[in-house]
Every structure is written in C-alpha cells, then in structure tokens.
C-alpha cells in the first residue's frame, strides 16, 4: 500500500522529468506536437468507445463460441489506453501503447452442459445398465 502511495506521489514528477528529457532530445516544438497528437488520439479513442463492443461479447458467449481473455478485456483495455493517452507524458503514452498490443490470452469456454472443468471431448451424463433379464412371468397388475 505504501508503494502504491509513493508511486502516485512520484508519478507526476516522473512524467515531467520524462517530458523534459524528451524536449531536450527532440526539441520543444516536436514535444508539444507529440502531446497534442496523443491528446487528440486519446479523445478520439474515448469518443469511439461504445457499449456495442460489450454487447458483441455477450452475444459471443450466448452463442457458445470460445472467447479469448484478450477479446473479453479489449473494451476495458481500449478505454484505459484512451485515458492514458489523454494524460500528458511519456510514461502514460508507453503504458497506453503496451495496453494496445495484440497479446492473445488463454481461451475461455463458456459454461455449458459439460461445465467449465470438463476436459475436451468428454460429455457428462447419467446412465444405467440394463443387462438384467427379467422373469417373463412377472407382470405388473
């Protein structure tokens, strides 16, 4: 908890130091253009974020398709990357780009008749053996 608090206190200073080093390396004008570009990019990403992506994921689950963890968390990652692009600084831009990388996660199987823990190719069910021969003279009255 103290580490998180320390990071939150140092984060603005790290962002300012990163911007100063970037301005020293490439100049003040290009750094200002970079900040404007990433701000507009973040704003565009947030404006294009709709609930439709979440509804699409829900439809995929209802149809029983296999969904990767990456596609499940993509709307959240996209939204967070847009917010990070809005924050002026080099560190937030790097984190936003890392969130947008197409890393595929493990496949998730929606719960169904086999259940989430059933191995591939196994169908769970109940059965009874009917090998016993019944007496033909026995009747139900």
UniProtKB/TrEMBL annotation:
<protein>
    <submittedName>
        <fullName>Protein affecting phage T7 exclusion by the F plasmid, UPF0716 family</fullName>
    </submittedName>
</protein>
<dbReference type="InterPro" id="IPR007313">
    <property type="entry name" value="FxsA"/>
</dbReference>
<keyword id="KW-0472">Membrane</keyword>
<dbReference type="GO" id="GO:0016020">
    <property type="term" value="C:membrane"/>
</dbReference>
<keyword id="KW-1133">Transmembrane helix</keyword>
<keyword id="KW-0812">Transmembrane</keyword>
<feature type="transmembrane region" description="Helical">
    <location>
        <begin position="32"/>
        <end position="57"/>
    </location>
</feature>
<dbReference type="Pfam" id="PF04186">
    <property type="entry name" value="FxsA"/>
</dbReference>
<feature type="compositionally biased region" description="Basic and acidic residues">
    <location>
        <begin position="126"/>
        <end position="141"/>
    </location>
</feature>
<feature type="transmembrane region" description="Helical">
    <location>
        <begin position="78"/>
        <end position="101"/>
    </location>
</feature>
<feature type="region of interest" description="Disordered">
    <location>
        <begin position="110"/>
        <end position="141"/>
    </location>
</feature>
